């Protein structure tokens, strides 16, 4: 809750960063180079004003927790399927209409929260996931 209107580029100079919480700001976009934060395990961008994400978010191969709830996301990149370590994904309270089929590649995913979006079309291969929790109430 720092009143940030942008994602600070200085953060990219911290390649060993493992936890990043920039919740409750006014950030509208992420830097396309966010994938350089390859050690990131925890990323919380809840309560911002993001409308889309760069494809490079799929380069965060060590990410286990991703909270993008309460933004203005209207689409989600296919590169999400590259986040093989991801255990928890929160996309609730956005404006999503569908989830890319690449989500079926997230073999480690245990918790998926996509409630309170526009009507979401779930890909068929979501059945492959061994989720412990799925929240899809609209």
Automatic annotation (TrEMBL):
Q: What's in the GO CC field?
A: cytoplasm
The residue ranges of the Disease resistance R13L4/SHOC-2-like LRR domain are 57-136
What's the short name of a Pfam family annotated to this entry? LRR_14
Keywords of the record, alphabetical order, are:
Leucine-rich repeat, Repeat
**PROSITE patterns referenced in this protein's UniProt entry, alphabetically:** LRR
Coiled-coil features, chain-numbered ranges: none
What InterPro entries does this protein map onto? Leu-rich_rpt (IPR001611), Leu-rich_rpt_typical-subtyp (IPR003591), LRR_dom_sf (IPR032675), LRR_domain-containing (IPR050216), LRR_R13L4/SHOC2-like (IPR055414)
Under Gene3D superfamilies, the record lists: Ribonuclease Inhibitor
Q: Where is the signal peptide?
A: none
Q: What is this protein called?
A: Disease resistance R13L4/SHOC-2-like LRR domain-containing protein
The record lists the organism as: marine sediment metagenome
């Amino acid at each position: 809750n720092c009143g940030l209107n942008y994602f600070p580029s200085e953060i990219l100079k911290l390649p060993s960063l493992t936890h990043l919480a920039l919740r409750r700001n006014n950030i509208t976009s992420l830097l396309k180079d966010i994938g350089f934060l390859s050690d990131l395990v925890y990323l919380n961008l809840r309560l911002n004003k993001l409308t889309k994400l760069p494809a490079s978010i799929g380069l965060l191969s060590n990410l286990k927790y991703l909270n993008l709830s309460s933004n203005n996301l209207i689409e989600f990149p296919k590169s999400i399927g590259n986040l093989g370590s991801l255990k928890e994904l929160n996309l609730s309270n956005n404006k999503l209409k569908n989830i890319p089929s690449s989500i079926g590649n997230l073999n480690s995913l245990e918790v998926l929260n996509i409630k309170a979006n526009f009507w979401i079309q779930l890909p068929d291969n979501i059945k492959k996931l061994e989720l412990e929790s799925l929240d899809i109430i609209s």
